Every structure is written in C-alpha cells, then in structure tokens.
Amino acid sequence: MKEQLEAIQAEALERVAETSQIKELQAIRVAYLGKKGSLTGVLRGMGKLSKEERPIVGEIANRVRESITQAIDQKNERLEEQALEKQLEKEAIDVTLPGRPIQVGGPHLLTKIVEEIEDLFIGMGFEVREGPEVETDYFNFEALNLPKDHPARDMQDSFYITNELLLRTHTSPVQARTMREYDGNKPVKMICPGKVYRRDTDDATHSHQFTQIEGLYVDKDVRMSDLKGILDVFAKKMFGADREIRLRPSFFPFTEPSVEMDISCKVCNGEGCSVCKGTGWIEILGAGMVHPKVLEMAGYDSSVYTGFAFGMGPDRIAMLKYGIDDIRQFYTNDRRFLKQYHNA
Amino acid sequence: MNVLVSLNWLKNYVDIGTITPEQLAEKITKSGIEVEGIEYVAETSKDVVVGYVKECEKHPNADKLNLCQVDVGDEILQIVCGAPNIQQGQKVAVAKPGAVLPGNFKIKKVKLRGIESNGMICSLQELGIQDKYVPKDIADGIFVFPQDVTVGEDVTALLNLNDAILELGLTPNRADCLSMLGVAYEVAAILDKPINLPEEKVITSGEDTHDFVSVSVANAELNPYYGAFMIKDVQVKPSPLWMRNHLIAAGIRPINNIVDITNYVLLEYGQPLHAFDYDRLQSNEIVVRRADENETIVTLDDQERNLTREHLVITNGREPVAIAGVMGGANTEVVNDTTTILLEAAYFAPTSVRKAVKDTGLRSESSTRFEKGVDPNRVNRAGVRACQLFEQYADGTVLSNAVVFDKLDRSEKEVDVNTSEINNRLGTNITTEEIGHILAKLRFQYEKNGDEFNVKIPTRRGDITIFEDMLEEVARIYGYDNLPYTLPNGVSQAGALTERQQLKRQVKNFMQGVGLMETISYSLTRQDYVTKLISPEINKSNPVPVRLAMPMSEDHKYLRLSILPELLHTVSYNRARNQTSISYYELGSIFTSQEEILTKQPNEQLRLSGVLSGLWTEHEWQQEKKAVDFYVVKGLVEGLFNFLEIPVTFEQTKLTDMHPGRCATVSIGDQVIGFIGQVHPKLEKAMDLNETYVFDINMETVLELYDNVPRYYQIPKYPSTTRDIAFVLDRTVLAGDVKKVIEETGAPLVKDIQIFDVYMGEHLQEDKKSIAYRLLYQDPERTLKDEEVEESYQTIIAAVNDKFNAYVRS
Ligand SMILES: [Zn+2]
C-alpha cells in the first residue's frame, strides 16, 4: 500500500506541477482528495491492514494528503495571482490622457481686494459699514463740508437724478450717516466699501462706475501720528513689509490737514522707473484729519473729538498690483479676464 | 489747476542756490504742492551765438535762398539762409559748425546749390521753443534779436534756453500759487531763504486821471474794488526779450508790449488786469453794473455773447465794453496805433465770474484767478506795477491819482494757535521756538504770549481761516516725514463682520464652490434693458425706472431693475469672443421706486442673479458633454437653499422674456422671492445668445430669514426602511404636486421623498408618463413594524390614485 500511496503522490504532484488552469487544479483536488478521489479510495482499503501496519500507513497517507493539498494550495495561489496580474494588466489605462475638468468658479478680483482690505481693518478693530448708492445731496456733499455753491461739486461731475438725489460720488456719506447714528457720543471706527459713480466717459483710466473703500476713526484725542501709524500698518500688510509710506500735503474739503499717501515703488524699490514715473513713489490713497465742520454737522463736539479719514480705490490698487492697464476690464466681465485672478 | 513755474524767473525773487530742479521739485511736493513734471526748455549748445548780418544778397543759383555774411564776433561766416524775413543789419542766432541743436541736429559746413554755407541762422523752433509759443509774425522765419545784444554772445541765456520749468498741480485751496510771488513765498518758506519782492515805483505826470475818467460801480458786492489808471503816449511794439522769455516759459505767447505787460503782471502778482484803448472807449466814464437781459457784447475773439442779469459788465456808460473778469470787448481792444491806455485793476467776486465763465464757456488765465479769489492787497499794487512797466517798456506817461472805487475788505484774519494744542493734534513734540520759526519762514506775522500765538494771516492766503488750517501749515513745513508713527490710544474694540456681511460672503463662497464666477456689472443700464427680466414680485409693485437727469450715454441711463440684462449682455460679449460656456453670478443692488419724479431715495434691494449658458460639464475625449439646462440651474438654487436650510418651493409660471414652458417662481412659504428658467428664445436671438438660463433671487428676504445659529440634529438611532412606487400619470400632472400629496398623506412616518425615475415612451400611452418615488420611513423613537409601513404605503397609493387619476405601474 505504501508503494501505491507514493505512486498516487508522485502522479498528483506531477499533475499539479503541469497544470496552468485553476479549473484543472480544482479537478485534481477532486480526483485525488475528493470523496471519490484516488487517495480516499486507497485509504478506504486501510481496514484490511493489520493493527501494526495501520498507524504506519496512516501516517504515510496523511503525509501524502498534506503534500498534495499543499501543492494544490500553493499552485492555486500562484495561478490566482497570475490571473489577477493578467486581469489588472488588461485594465491598464493611459494615465497621460486628460482628467475630467472640474467646474471652477471664483470671486471677482475687486471683491478679493475689497475683502482683503476689510479683513485687514477688521483685524485692527474696525467695523464694516454699508450705505445706499443713491444718496441725498446732503449726505454726499453738504455733510462733508461741500456746501451747495462749492466749486468742487460741479453738477457736471456727478450723476444727479433730481436736484436733491444723486448716485454717490464716494462712500464718504456712509461715514456721515454712521457718525449721525452714533449721535456724537460714541467712538467711530469703521470702513465702508462700495460702488461709486462719477460723470466720466469710460476709457482706459476712467470708469463711470468704480469701487471705493473709505475709513473713519473718531475718538477723543486722535492724533495725526495715529493716522500715519495705521496707514503704515495697512500699507505693509497690503503691499509688503518692506514698503515705506510717505505723506504729502493735499486738499479735500472734508479733512484738514489733508494728505496723500504714497508707497515706495515695489518695481524699482524707490530708484525710479516707468511704473512710478521716475519718482520712486506710487500714490495709493487720500487721507486727513476730519474737518471740524464735518464733526460738528454730525453732532460731534470738535473740541473734544478728533479723527482721521482715508479713502482708496480698489480698482487702482488692483491695477497697480497686477499690472492691469484698462479699468474697463473690471466691468466687461470677459471670462478669460475673470478666470485669471481666481487664485491670485 | 496747473501752473508753470520758470526757475530762471523764480530766481528774481528767491535765491534758490545750487539746488537742482529735481531736488527742489521733491521738496515742494513733500511740503504741499505736487510737482507733476519738470521740463527743460532746450538742450543747450555752446556754439549758438548772436551774429550780425553784415551783408545779405540773393543766392546766385536759387530764388528763395539768401547768401549772408554774418559777423559772429571772432569771425565772419558765410551762411546760406532760406528764411523769408532775413535782412541786412539784423542780429540773429547763429549755430556755428559743430553746434548741436535739439533733436541731435548737428551743424556742419555744407554746400547749398554750389555755395559754401558755414552754419545756420536759427528760428526759435530750431532752438527748441515749442511752436505754440513762437510769436505769430515769425512763425515761419528766423528769430531777430533787439539791437542791444552783443555780437558773439551765447544765445542760451538770452533766449532762456537753460531754464527748467516746474509744472505745479495746485489743489483748489492753493490759488495763492497762481502767481510767481505766491510760489516765491512758498519756495522761500521751504528753503528758509529771504524773499525779494519787486518794488512798484512810478513817476506820474502832472495830469490828473480824474480829469479823464470817472468810475462808478452799481454792485459793490460783486465788484468791491475798481482802479482805473491812465497811461498816455504809449508806443505799441515788441516787449523786451526777458519779458518774452518769461511769458514763453509760463506758457503764454508774446504779442506786443501792452498785452505782454498785462499778462506779465497777471503771472507775477496773480492779479488780472485789462487794458482798454482810451480813445476807442469814446467816453470818460466807467460804469460797472449787471448786464440787462438780452444785452450783447462782441468779445476780443470776435464772438457775439448774450448776457443776462447774472453777468457783471464794464460799460462806457452806454454799452458793455467787457464782461467783468472774463474778457474784454473787441471794439475797445488795444491795437497797433493805440496811444492812450485805460488800465483796469479790479477785484471781481468769484461767484459772478464763475457764472459768466459757465455761461460763455470762456475760461482764461484771468477768469481762473478771479474764480479762486485774488489777494485784496495786491489789486492796486499790480496796477502800479503795470504802470511802471508801461513807463519803462512802452514809453508811456502815467497820469497821477488813479481813479478808484474801493469797498474792499483788506483786513487780515487772525487765528490763535498754541504749542500744546498743535502737539496734541499732530502727536509731536514741536517746541514753541520751532513753531515761531515756521511762522517766520511762512512770513506770517504773529504776537506771541508764552506758547500762545496770535497769527495774522496774510490776505494772499485766503485759504487759512481756522485753527486746523494753521495746523496744516505748521505740519507741512515741519514735515510729515517727521511725524512719528503711533497707534490710537482709544479703547480697543473687536472688529467683526455683521451676520449679514458674513452670510453674503458665505453665499458668494457657495456660488463659487459650485462653479460660478462672480461678476460686477454696471448699475446703470439702457432703456431697452431696464424693463427686461424683472422678477415677478418686483414687477407687481409697478416700479418706475429711475432715470439720470443728465446721462453721459444711452448705454448708462437708467438704474437697473434687474441684474440680468447686463449679465446677458456680458454673455453675448463673451460669445462673440468664442467664450460660449458661461456660468456667472452677481450679488448686487437693484433700485426700485414707484415715483415718476423721485422725492426720496429709491429702495435698494440686494439680489443674487446668475446666468448659465453652453456646457455645464465637458470631458471631450470621453465624448461626455452636459449642456446647461433648467435642472442644472434649479439644482444650484436648491443647493443654495439646502445649504442655508431655508425651504423653498418652485412653481411653474409664465413671464415676459422667459421661455413659457421653462420658467418657475421661487418662493419661501407664499412669498415669491425670485424666478429661474430659460430666457425666451426670441430674446436669446435678439441678444445673440444660445440657450441661456438664469436665476434671480431677492437676497434681502433670505438674509432676514437666515438663522445663523448652527443647529444640531440627533443622528437617528433606529433603522429606516425605503419603499419605491412608480405612478402612471397624465403628462400634465406635475411631479411636485404628487410629491406634496405623498408628503401630506405619509406624514409623520415618511421622512424623505426622492424621485428616481421619470419615463415617457413606447411602454406607456402617449399622454401618460411614469414617475418613480423612493419613500424613506423612519421613526426617531423606535423601529417601525412592517405592517405600519405597509399600511401607510397603501394609503399613499390610494390618495395619489384618487387625486390624480393615477395607477401604480407594475
Ligand atoms: Zn518705480
């Protein structure tokens, strides 16, 4: 019987070794180890053996079974792996083909600039205030020390609707409204972004509609050096820590003293280039100490309260920052233009 | 308001030392007046000198050329010259061989028509003077010097070619610098230098002006000062070379000595003057009054002007001879044979001049200065100064006792300042001594008492009236560079966006996150746009479009009642540039009013609008294309409201300009807040669009309803079960209506209803469709029993069948 078992083993192992099909391997398993398999058949004849022979042959039989089982299992594993490999190879794709484009949206460049400035001033404790775009003559001009006969308020420069109503020419009326709301006894610390309108013919540098952000700080004992300090913080955060600012005297009816703020030119680092027209400086905003008449008209006692105000144009800032040469781009909404600045 | 300042002229009043024009410009800019440009008159060449034309005869081989022998001091040069005005005996500018003229024009010895020419006799243009400043009579010829110049002398200084001219951009408050004296005060203060003012001196004749003219003024409030000076025996001729140089440098073309002198004093003192030809005045009286209605005058430019009561005129007692402060009349103009001049030095109030300028469109150097207000203390002095120059340069005899009408306030205003107040306001530590020094530099008189200054403001600085104005003067001379950087001492408060502002940003982020680009379009729109695509709830309020009183163009005439028309315009713009797949949104205001003529501000309503066109998704090589359709837009809007957790409903509607079968209102409860749908194909065609979808939502309501407090929902502990039902319905039945019935009947166990299939086609009758719903059953407190679910399910089927004449599709 021993010989018989060994012959079965040899035959089985040979068949296992030869086969390359999982199905056939399955058949081999059945043929040798199944209920009607040859090994089972041999073992069935064990009853005829003597007591002494039985354990010896039994052990041999077990060894043979194990060896066949192991060989089949191993082969099975190898074949399955090969099959999988083949399958995966078939599934291979061209990874260099383009992926499915995802729909990308994004903010308008002016919104980005405005929100950046908002966040910067919020960080310094300012609130953001909004106001109507159609304003009364009073809030747009008179409350800002521009009485009716003031030469700086030519009808020609503003979009009037009636004698008393017009499209606001700046966001300063929001300041006047806020001060009035605070009733002359509360500090004001605000910025006001928004759309403004001037009676201009649209060209590369003029737009009848544009964007403005103004700021106002009113409290007891506000000094001009505070204005300089705040503007310096703003300029360094907005344009880079290595920027310098300079204030130049200027004139606005609603501030006294009035200044314009320049920052050192980033392109030439103050050496002078075409961007800064050789001066080394670029004009960024107008500012000043709130005119006592403006404070008084809003109900603040100008002998107790002082303050500063500033105003800037995000359109101009965006044009400077990104080298945009035509202001109309902001309002034409050419898809190719809008897309450029989504991750600016 | 810009003014040109010749540095060579300025040097007459202030010693500016060796400072370069660039350095001076920087200093002026930093202390108050922006220098917008520096212009050098000409690149100078050493080899251009004064030459004396000893001989001048026709060129033997050319009719239009002359052959000249020119003495240039150290030699005689033979020069061929083509200028029509060349004559023997003239003193001219000669560019010798080796000279380089502006434009890098090198002068060499050449042969012209066979004759040697050793240099060039120059016109002013060839020396670098701009055409517009060259006197008209020599526009096509060479420049001829007066006889008193020295032969061989370098022309550079003689013609002021070495001048640098600063262009000052004046803010409206600094009209004092519309005069050389004003600029001199400014520069003297900045450089801390003394100032040399001209001394007005005139030797008058024995004749009394009062014997020749009387002055009466009917409207002293408009004309508080009128001085009439008489100058006899004048000779009209060219003005001296230096004066012509100064005028050219200031941007004024020289004409003759009389006109040049009045212009010169205008530029020097900032005081406009007017010279009448006394004989042509044909009267011995000057009457200043308001013009009569319909009165006319022919002005210097030969235009007839219509006048009204609002205009102030100078008359000869009978008719206007000048519009006060604006322009003189043609019939009293100084002409070449004028011998007697009546010179006007007056103060005209800014308001009347401004009005006249606006009505006539005549803006001149004179009117600009009157409009800004001239220095009351310089009116008479300017008159005397001009008389002095008439005497010197027009051979005139000045009569004694000018006739003067004088109601002019010439007093100096006073402003009190003190050291501590200045330092408190500026954040500085300027000493009292320093402030005194600054006031001295500005040449402001003051009385000092401890650290208190009582400052007398010179009348030339009419812009200074209050403490803050003085604060600015001190600060700018002290230097803004010297201000410290500080931060406010006030109580600090936390800055934050309001809930509304935060939500606006969230809505923008949502829109961008789902693939829409933000736009900003114009609020002002066209007449044919303003009535289009208005949301039904806005339309219901019968809005009247708000129109500008004086629009600049037809394109921007009305305030928008909807963002959509301008958005569609941008889609059309992009389509014309091959950008056909567009998904845009905009968050902005519309302006509604019910008034024909506005008496109050229109209502400004924030709206969220969007426009989608072309492909929504595309993967080309996989041939996957998904065009934008109604359900893409609806999905966006549903997504937004799911995100905001505000339930909205959509109802089929028909709107003008919208596709009648593809349009729905959006409502919260029973309040319509906007609409979505496809633009009407007729409008699409008219605007050159392909299939285009829009949405438009009233954000005010949304912002009001939005509850910013985050909610917490317990995750259900008990299992849910789903049931599917497909109903066969008439095609006209709306899926949403069926859903509503399922909701009502299935409550409270049915928690969610999804539509997962819609079918129309061969397996159904032509007028039928099938809609499959997936129902989610759940109870938060327990596990539902099968029988309960089954019972509810059957009730729902019965209700739908009953209500819509439906049956369940097997
Ligand atoms: Zn630069």
Give an account of the 3D structure.
The complex is a heterodimer of chains A (344) and B (810). With 344 residues, chain A is α+β, with helices and mostly antiparallel strands. Chain A has helices at 2-18, 22-33, 38-44, 53-90, 109-123, 137-140, 172-182, 224-239, 292-297, 314-322, 329-332, 335-340; strands spanning 127-128, 134-136, 165-167, 188-197, 209-220, 245-252, 255-264, 281-290, 305-312. Chain A has two domains: 2-90; 109-340, Bira Bifunctional Protein, Domain 2 (BirA Bifunctional Protein, domain 2). Chain A is 42% helix and 19% strand. Chain A has a seven-stranded mixed beta sheet with strand order 1-4-5-9-8-7-6. A two-stranded antiparallel sheet of chain A has the order 2-3. In chain A, β6 and β7 form a beta hairpin. The two termini of chain A are 86 Å apart. In chain A, 43% of the residues are buried. With 810 residues, chain B is α+β, with helices and mostly antiparallel strands. Chain B has six domains: 2-41 and 163-191, Phenylalanyl-tRNA Synthetase, Chain B, domain 1 (2-Layer Sandwich); 48-158, OB fold (Dihydrolipoamide Acetyltransferase, E2P); 204-406, 3-Layer(bba) Sandwich (Phenylalanyl-tRNA Synthetase, Chain B, domain 3), CATH 3.50.40; 413-478, Phenylalanyl-tRNA Synthetase, Chain B, domain 1; 499-705, 2-Layer Sandwich (BirA Bifunctional Protein, domain 2); 721-808, 2-Layer Sandwich (Alpha-Beta Plaits). A seven-stranded mixed beta sheet of chain B has the order 30-33-34-40-39-38-37, sandwiched between helices. In chain B, a hairpin with a 3-residue loop joins β22 and β23. In chain B, α6 runs antiparallel to α10 and α12 packs across α13 (467-478). The longest helix of chain B is centred in the C-terminal third of the chain and has 19 residues, at 786-804. Chain B is elongated and about 130 Å long. The mean pLDDT of chain B is 93. Chains A and B meet through α5, β1, β2, β4 and β5 of A and α2, α8, α11, α13 and α14 of B.
